[in-house]
Design goal:
- The strands form three sheets. A four-stranded antiparallel β-sheet has the order 2-6-4-5. A three-stranded antiparallel β-sheet has the order 1-7-3.
- The chain folds into two domains: 6-143 and 225-235, Jelly Rolls (Sandwich), CATH 2.60.120.10; 147-222, Arc Repressor Mutant, subunit A, CATH 1.10.10.
- The N and C termini lie far apart (44 Å).
- It is an alpha+beta fold and 246 residues long.
- It has helices at residues 12-16, 19-25, 82-86, 109-118, 120-146, 149-162, 173-180, 184-196, 212-219, 225-235; strands at residues 30-33, 39-41, 49-53, 57-64, 67-74, 95-100, 103-108, 168-170, 200-203, 206-209.
Length: 246
């Protein structure tokens, strides 16, 4: 299989690379299809591969005595497995798995680390991406503590919608309750509230976004902070100085 071309990739991180930095990764990128609930990064196991999503998205979940709760979401804006590899930890206690199937570009940890060690500009971009992930995790903790379920659901649907090319989000009420860390009945009530005001349409196994502007209004300040940080650090045309540079 031929190596992917930068112009044809959908991953926003890969698109932001210089031609020279992309060339360091290109020979090692392998396209693969993902399946629902496929494990990409197993908790407490060495990370042997990283994944640049081209379509679909993955959840990062933390385990607790009563189940799992989502603490992060990664789609075509990011890189699955980045934190333990870039920070030299090797492993992480979280489960990263496919929530919406699609296509990813996989790369071995060895090849990725060799490229990052060779290029300060590539390393700088990836570390700025880690900052956006940290902001997302902290925002999620804040939102879970400060907002009620319908607002939390609105934010989560917006985040999923950002990572798709259409308005249908594949999810069951059971899966949604696990992701939001609530009882299934609580997730069902939140879905009914958003459906009742016309923002979404719930179908079997999926939710259709009907009024994104309404979801944004409902989400209030729960949505937007990580997205703004990503735009500032990754997608602004200006070159950011490395720490300590003039």
């Amino acid at each position: 299989m031929s190596a992917p071309h930068q112009a044809s990739t959908y991953n926003r991180l890969l698109k932001r690379l210089s031609a020279a930095d992309f060339a360091l990764l290109q020979p090692h990128l392998q396209s693969m299809r993902t399946e629902l609930r496929q494990t990409l990064i197993a908790p407490d196991e060495p990370v042997s591969q990283l994944f640049f999503p081209e379509s679909g998205y993955a959840s990062i979940t933390a385990n607790h005595t009563e189940g799992r709760i989502e603490v992060g979401l990664i789609g075509r804006e990011g890189l699955v497995g980045a934190s333990p590899v870039l920070l030299g930890a090797g492993t992480a206690p979280y489960h990263e798995f496919v929530q919406c199937p699609g296509e990813v570009l996989a790369i071995s940890t060895a090849a990725f680390c060799a490229a990052v060690n060779q290029s300060p500009s590539l390393r700088g971009l990836m570390l700025r991406y880690l900052q956006t992930k940290l902001v997302q995790a902290r925002q999620t903790a804040f939102v879970n503590a400060a907002y009620n379920m319908d607002v939390r659901l609105a934010r989560w649907l917006l985040m999923c919608h950002d990572r798709l090319d259409d308005d249908e989000i594949p999810v069951t009420h059971e899966f949604l309750s696990m992701m939001l860390g609530v009882q299934r009945s609580g997730a069902t009530v939140a879905v009914q509230i958003l459906e009742g005001i016309g923002h979404i349409k719930a179908k079997r196994g999926r939710i259709m976004v009907r009024n994104r502007a309404g979801l944004l209004d409902l989400a209030h300040g729960s949505y937007g902070t990580p997205e703004a940080e990503y735009a500032r650090l990754i997608e602004t045309p200006e070159v950011l100085h490395e720490p300590g540079s003039a």
